[in-house]
């Protein structure tokens, strides 16, 4: 576990069980494999090209993940969450109290989608079966499979397959 009370943390090219906590800095996660726990009280979390299980939390910043593979759990109390996934493990859970969510899911993979927010937007989502209205979506993409749970108390949720 790496801890700091006000500085930034960079996790680069590590393997195994990894933990990071800072009260006021940004956490950068690059090229890691394994189980990654990261929390910041006042900064952003950026993850890229990492795989395994990512558990990310910020109380006052944004979470951005690009080219990640595996299971993904992210929570922002007051910030946006953006996730771009190459492959999905056991599921995705993204939740924010005051912000927007953007989930870019791999095309052709089956998902069980549950989303609730101020507004739900589909961008290039094919093969959806289920119910969809402005504030919520329940259904399957490509026949269903991996659970994807998205919650934005006061924000827009955008779901894209690419």
What does this 3D model show about the protein?
- With about 160 residues, this protein is an all-beta fold.
- The chain is built from no helices and 16 strands.
- The chain has a 16-stranded mixed beta sheet that branches.
- The radius of gyration is 15 Å and the shape is globular.
- The mean pLDDT is about 95.
Distance between the termini: 35 Å
The class by helix and strand makeup works out as: mainly beta
Count of individual helical segments: 0
Which term fits the overall shape?
Answer: globular
Largest sheet: number of strands, sense, barrel closure? 16 strands, mixed
**Number of strand elements:** 16
Q: Spans of 5+ residues with little confidence (pLDDT < 50)?
A: none
Radius of gyration, CA atoms, in whole angstroms:
15 Å
**What is the helical fraction, as a range of percent?**
under 10%
Please state roughly what percent of the residues sit in beta strands, choosing from under 5%, 5-15%, 15-25%, 25-35%, 35-45% or over 45%: over 45%
What is the overall pLDDT average?
Answer: 96
Order of helices and strands: EEEEEEEEEEEEEEEE
Please specify the SSE layout and strand pairing:
Layout: E1 2-4, E2 9-12, E3 15-22, E4 27-30, E5 33-40, E6 45-48, E7 51-58, E8 63-76, E9 81-96, E10 101-105, E11 111-116, E12 119-123, E13 128-132, E14 136-141, E15 146-152, E16 156-161
Parallel strand pairs: 1-3, 2-4, 3-5, 4-6, 5-7, 6-8, 7-8, 8-9, 9-10, 9-15, 10-16, 11-15, 12-16
Antiparallel strand pairs: 11-14, 13-14
């Amino acid at each position: 576990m790496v801890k700091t009370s006000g500085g930034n943390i960079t996790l680069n090219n590590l393997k195994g069980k990894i933990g990071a906590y800072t009260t006021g800095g940004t956490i950068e996660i690059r090229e890691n494999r394994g189980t990654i726990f990261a929390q910041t009280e006042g900064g952003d979390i950026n993850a890229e090209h990492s795989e395994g299980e990512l558990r990310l939390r910020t109380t006052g910043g944004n979470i951005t993940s690009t080219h990640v593979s595996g299971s993904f759990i992210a929570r922002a109390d007051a910030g946006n969450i953006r996730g771009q996934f190459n492959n999905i493990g056991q599921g995705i859970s993204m939740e924010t109290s005051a912000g927007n969510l953007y989930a870019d899911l791999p095309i052709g993979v089956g998902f069980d989608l549950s989303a609730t927010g101020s507004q739900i937007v589909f961008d290039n989502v094919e093969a959806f079966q289920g119910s969809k209205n402005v504030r919520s979506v329940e259904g399957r993409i490509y026949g269903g499979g991996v659970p994807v749970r998205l919650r934005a108390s006061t924000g827009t949720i955008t779901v894209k397959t690419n």
